[in-house]
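Exercise 7. Given the components listed, write out the predicted structure of the assembled complex. Treat all entries as one system.
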Amino acid sequence: MKKVVIESVAMNGGVGDHSYANNSSLQRSGFEAAKSLIHEAIMEKLDIKHLCNGKSFRITDLGCSAGPNTFIAVESIVEAIEQKHHSEGLKLPLPEFHVYFNDQLSNDFNTLFNSLPLERRYFAAGVPGSFHTRLFPEKSIDLVCSLSALQWLSKVPEDVVNMGRIHYSNAPSEVMEAYKGQFSKDMERFFDARAKEVVHGGLMVLSFPCIRDGQPYSRFLVGVFFSLLGSALMDMVKMGKVDQTKVDSFNMPFYAASPKEVEALVERNGHFTIERMETQNFPILQGEGAIQVYSKHNRACAEGLIRQHFGHDDEIVDELFDLFSNKLSEYFSILEESSMNFVFVLLKRKQD
Amino acid sequence: MKKVVIESVAMNGGVGDHSYANNSSLQRSGFEAAKSLIHEAIMEKLDIKHLCNGKSFRITDLGCSAGPNTFIAVESIVEAIEQKHHSEGLKLPLPEFHVYFNDQLSNDFNTLFNSLPLERRYFAAGVPGSFHTRLFPEKSIDLVCSLSALQWLSKVPEDVVNMGRIHYSNAPSEVMEAYKGQFSKDMERFFDARAKEVVHGGLMVLSFPCIRDGQPYSRFLVGVFFSLLGSALMDMVKMGKVDQTKVDSFNMPFYAASPKEVEALVERNGHFTIERMETQNFPILQGEGAIQVYSKHNRACAEGLIRQHFGHDDEIVDELFDLFSNKLSEYFSILEESSMNFVFVLLKRKQD
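Answer.
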């Protein structure tokens, strides 16, 4: 089987009907739930005296996409730090904030920059590149935030044989194991890079889709999406519109870890302490409107990968997502029984 | 007369036939000439022990456009610092470099990021915004470089009445004075912002088109370009294709200062010492090929402003630059008699 290396996952750019900017309300709800935890994390765990010692305070959002969720996240972090600073009655002046918005090279930074709030309280920069690699100089970051991004693998595990499916949900266990192995390698690189970049005492706030221990993948919302999208692709194979081998060699580079796996990976890396960890459950959308939201959400996230692999034929892409919408209707009862969880982790950089 | 505020000057984006990326060889020759001066400046004036004291070395290129000249400039700066570090036999390890590529919000950062050299020796970030405003936290930059950018005014001076022309060349002296006043205000804001951002002992390397004392504007190459472009626009007025009032209210926000003016502005600001200053003369292109190069160069730089003001009609823009090319042919002898100079200034941030 042909090896498939996904070079980069980028959400749809621009501000059009299919853009991520206009179809990221699900991620927004993920963020809204993380927001109060981030606020608490900063109030309780940020050593503001040590970190704001006469220099600017440097924040990065890793996997920020093209907005607007990233701006809400950053704004709320800055607000919490200001509140913490105020509550401690420090004599030090409030630091200036430098915020680095990071995402893949193929992210639409032009849209990101043009959506930057005009009245922001920070200096902004964009940083193109994979967060599985080094992005910043040593000891230059005070707070890392990454929301709804770490579930994206750097690539599909190379030796996956996954006939007629595009994900490990409903796949043989060796497919699942290969994904698990890739996630583990990716997180190792992620933690190694951040361990160099984050100052001692610096915080890292991570939140991404997870699976609860024992939860079957057949009832994990995103797994259901990918099963239905794979099924829609197979329908197109039957209609002679898509090549079967193309489907066999396509896999979504998405992995939902369990909190236990995340904990083990942090411990193996050894440079961070877990200050807080919890899972959050998200309500599944109900009613007819849900189908359109889910369909557009999946298109904003997956269209780039699909075009890279299957070609840039608009008609094929439109038809695929029409079929996908029909599948969502047909299997709506399964969606309603599924669940969607996020793991929230607060890490602190240890003294070496 | 209607006031015209030019919101932002951005070179043409992308990598197409009319792009700045493919039509910036004139700026490249400007940079090539500055290159050896930059190298000397770093070797002679950079206090490497003070600036590389266990932290990363932060460089910004202000007005970088979409490449490729900016990468050559930055590469050569990094190389010079490495050489300086080596030549002093310092025990400190070579610092990591963090490079901030800055340009207007309307700059094509997607093209810039996708053109970043893969084998670079620095961490890269993009910073959108006008360099006439603050872009970075206090004392966060070690070396500022700005090549072929400071000639662009933040806006056309507001009360300019400049019938049938698009620039101060060949215009009444009050037009010229208004431009001079705007340049002076802009540079004041530029130096004030940089004075906050650059660390004590940090360097600032500036190079931009200038006029030699006593040189008539009628023989300043860029002034000749704008006279001919204005004349081409007036031809289109006569042909009924462009509205006269539109031409009257359009002015290129470009100013070529004299070295004496620059010196006075640095002194008035008071936060920098002039470590070196010289003017460099550029050979005027000869032969038929020159016309095409000049025409494309002007289009890559001016098309954005023209479209903002006159509308986005491709036919009008194409016809304008065809007429402009004809004018370049017709007045080629004037171009051959003209001259093009750049001022190179090396500044050092004083201790307050």
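Discussion: Chain A has eleven helices and seven strands. Residues 25-349 of chain A form a domain with the Rossmann fold fold (CATH 3.40.50.150).
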